[in-house]
Amino acid sequence: MKDMTIRAARVVVCAPGRNFVTLVIETEGGLTGIGDATVNGRETGVVAHLQHEVIPSLIGRDAGRIEDTWQYFYRGAYWRGGPVALAAIGAVDVALWDIKAKAAGMPLYQLLGGASRERMLCYPHARGHDIEALCDDVARLCEKGFRAIRLHCDVPGEPQHPFIPPLPHGVAALPAEITRDPDAYTRFAPRMLAAVRARFGEELHLLHDIHNRVTPIQAARIARETEPLNLFWLEDPVPMENPEVLRLIRRASTTPLAVGEVLNTIHDCRRMMEEQLIDYIRVTPVHAGGITQVRRIADLAALYQIRTAFHGAPDMSPVNFGAALHLGRALPNFGIQEYAGHAPEAGEVFHAAWRYADGGMTTGEAPGHGVTLDEAAAARFPYNPSFLPVVRLADGTLWHY
Ligand code: CS2
Ligand code: MG
After folding, report:
1. Angle 66-74/290-303 helices, nearest 10 degrees?
2. 310 and 275 within one domain
3. pTM above the 0.90 mark?
4. What is the tens place of the pLDDT at every residue in 157-190?
5. Does the first or last residue of the chain, that is N or C, have fewer Cβ atoms within 10 Å of its Cβ?
6. Alpha-carbon distance 292 to 135, whole Å?
7. Which pairs from 47-52 meet CB under 8 Å and 24+ separation?
8. Which CATH number fits the domain that encloses residue 75?
């Protein structure tokens, strides 16, 4: 067995289309593993944490001791939880699983118990300024073979999301501010979803992300009104601070619910699973402490017949996809994988063995998680500060994004 002592670790920040933070770990025996540490709009916070507090403790550790390393950075830190810390732990964890699988000469899913399936059902995003444009986009995605599609349509009368162009380098970026109207959205969303169902028939899986933009009782109303449409799910009907609110929505409707892309620990997920308040859990390795913890969350979910739906917006780097897909391939309770795609430049920086094909995704058979980083290419796309928008109601009240 090659020497598994961690010799070096470094952080690579690049923006091929958007910002990604990648941790690279090297062993004395010559193996390299990488993990995604991107937190959208908080990139430099994770970089500082990795560089100052994590990497110094990594050097000299045995790369094979994945569990102990996880406990060291989580339990050993006293300050537990939060997206910055868990993204750093997640990056370390995924890089170490990458190394272990390479040391074993196996694709990662084999170390995780072997394949439970060959292909993971996935869903992309369809968007439109109005229902007609949205339907055109859905038709385009159906042509590509997708069998599950997330629907997003601008609400008539609501100011449109401005696209936030990245600022020239050296200029301090600030979040854009946008206005939302929860009442108009509550009236419009069921109508929009019904129109797509009517046009595309009952077999296409339709998903919708409420994105916390309504009150709990409005979310319950949307879930009840859309029940006859047999949606695959409604996502994030309410913010995650008090998941007990999901009880209200559950009582109103049998529309399946998906939550959890902002959750970081198994403790955040536990009660809503035990109470059977959700159907899909959206945690993903980068934001929930890597393979080690997400596997535990998935196992807990399985006790309640809750399935996985790993977050796969474009701010999850191709490296996170590698980790998520290998895990999804092995888990008994995989549900669906979000796949909103990446900018073409991302393919110059990250070389991935995973693929999209015919409505699903495959891991490939490369040893490790199958994603590598071309650091010379990464240097051609320097970090570019950008943020998610801040949302207000028309009267100026600050609201949820
Ligand atoms: C969304 C994301 O993909 C999703 O379900 O909720 O687009 C989310 O807004 C971003 O990942 C935030 O960084
Ligand atoms: Mg979401």
Report:
1. 90
2. yes
3. yes
4. 876 655 445 555 556 678 989 999 999 999 999 9
5. N
6. 40
7. 47/11, 47/13, 47/21, 49/84, 49/85, 49/88, 50/11, 50/21, 50/23, 50/88, 50/91, 51/11
8. 3.30.390.10
- CB 228, CB 255: distance < 8 Å: no
HSE (CB half, 13 Å, CA atoms) of 286?
Answer: 28
Going by alpha carbons, the residue nearest to atom 3 of ligand 1 is: 313
Is the Cβ atom of 315 under 6 angstroms away from ligand 1? yes
| Closest-lying ligand 1 atom to the alpha carbon of residue 235 | 5
Minimal-distance CA residue to ligand 1 atom 2: 313
What whole-number distance in Å separates Cα of residue 62 and Cα of residue 231? 47
Cα gap 139→154, rounded to integer Å = 18
Residues 111-135 have a mean pLDDT of 98
CATH code for position 179: 3.20.20.120
- pLDDT tens per residue, range 344-378: 999 999 999 999 999 999 999 999 999 999 999 99
The residue written with tokens 């046009």 in the block is 199
Ligand showing the shortest atom-to-Cα distance for residue 125: 1
Pairing of strands 355-357, 360-362: antiparallel
Same domain, 153 and 206: yes
311: CA distance to ligand 1 center in Å? 8
Of 65, 94, 71, which is closest to residue 294 (Cα–Cα)? 94
